């Protein structure tokens, strides 16, 4: 039995990978070509869903790297992020401007790691 759990595995990536009590995941918007508020909301909702499925939550995020294609979106993205992260539980975070993302209509991508919670779900129990 492997000590690495992979959830939502495809040939190229997994939706989430868990190892040593830490969840690793990357989320992108569900829509393409929409504004930063829509895309940020989609990404944060997807992250929260993944974390909850794995027995974690936004207040357990350890590190986040946010990729933006335009720093003009920084303020709007931060307003949504700040409202989403529970007070007093901000993770270590980096925000990087990139030339582009895989889908030219995406404005944001977030990669993060989070601590598993007491309610961690083992593979096959979802």
Describe the structure.
Mean pLDDT is 92; it is low at 119-126. The protein is α+β, with helices and mostly antiparallel strands and 126 residues long. The protein has 2 helices and 6 strands, in the order E-E-E-H-E-H-E-E. Helix 1 runs parallel beside helix 2. The protein is globular, with a radius of gyration of 15 Å. It has a single domain, classed as RutC-like (60s Ribosomal Protein L30, Chain: A, 2-Layer Sandwich). The chain has a 6-stranded mixed sheet, with helices on one face.
Summarize the structure.
With 126 residues, the protein is α+β, with helices and mostly antiparallel strands. It has helices at residues 36-53, 74-84; strands at residues 4-7, 16-19, 22-27, 61-68, 92-97, 108-115.
List strands and helices in order, with pairings.
Layout: E1 4-7, E2 16-19, E3 22-27, H1 36-53, E4 61-68, H2 74-84, E5 92-97, E6 108-115
Parallel strand pairs: 4-5
Antiparallel strand pairs: 1-2, 2-3, 3-6, 4-6
Task: List key phrases describing it.
126 residues, 60s Ribosomal Protein L30, Chain: A, 6-stranded mixed sheet, 29% strand, globular
- What order do the helices and strands follow? EEEHEHEE
Report the span from N to C terminus: 18 Å
Q: Provide the CATH superfamily.
A: RutC-like
Q: Which strand-content bin applies to the residues?
A: 25-35%
The counted number of beta strands is 6
The general outline is: globular
Structural class: alpha+beta
Count of the domains: 1
Q: Give average pLDDT, whole number.
A: 92
Give the CATH architecture.
2-Layer Sandwich
Q: Please state how the strands of the largest beta sheet are arranged side by side.
A: 1-2-3-6-4-5
């Amino acid at each position: 039995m492997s000590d690495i759990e992979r959830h939502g595995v495809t040939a190229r990536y997994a939706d989430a990978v868990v190892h040593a009590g830490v969840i690793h995941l990357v989320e992108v918007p569900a829509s393409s070509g929409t504004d930063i508020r829509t895309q940020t909301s989609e990404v944060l909702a997807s992250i929260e869903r993944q974390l909850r499925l794995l027995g974690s939550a936004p207040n357990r995020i350890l590190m986040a790297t946010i990729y933006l294609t335009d720093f003009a979106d920084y303020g709007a993205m931060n307003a949504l992020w700040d409202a989403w992260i529970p007070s007093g539980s901000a993770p270590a975070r980096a925000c990087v401007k990139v030339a582009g993302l895989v889908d030219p209509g995406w404005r944001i991508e977030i990669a993060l790691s989070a601590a598993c919670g007491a309610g961690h779900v083992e593979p096959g129990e979802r």
